Please model this.
Amino acid sequence: MTDKKPPSRVQKQREIRVAAGWQEVKVWVPTEKDAEDIRNLANERRMKAEALDGLSNEVRAVTPETQIRIAQAIAEHGSAAYTHSSGAVLDLMTKLADEDDLQSFSRAFIILARAKPTNAASVASFIPAKISNFLVKHRGVDPGSMMSWTHDHPEWTDRLKDAVRDPERFELVIEAMAQEMKRPH
Model:
């Protein structure tokens, strides 16, 4: 029997970045100057990603208005106006759910995960609560039925978190959950 060590912080961050679509590059260069040039280029590319340069092209069907809203929310990362470093994005996701725009909700998460991959897991942890509120407010799910259904389906939070990186699938998963919750037991 082998003892499995929990992944190190570096391993966790690597996994998070890979899940967000980032690429790891290791390269050997002959001089310290070359190494410095590559470090500078890598830093420039990280800054561009955090500024959302080109990211919206990778998320199909983001309207210009939604793109601006997402970019503004991500630009407020770390704002003291929120208790969570990604509070502005979480607030935007709530608004998008209130607007019954589940695909844009998903796209906001995808773009955040791409720009700030180390925040993705924390933001994802809020998705079940946001969708629970959405289901009650916008799909007429009875809170008691929801409680019973979620008790009988403990995997539901993982289903949401797994689907959130695919806007069409995310919407379908939520609609299917709503129908299942509304069925008489």
Notes: The radius of gyration is 19 Å. The CA atoms of residues 14 and 24 lie 8 Å apart. The chain has a mean pLDDT of 87.
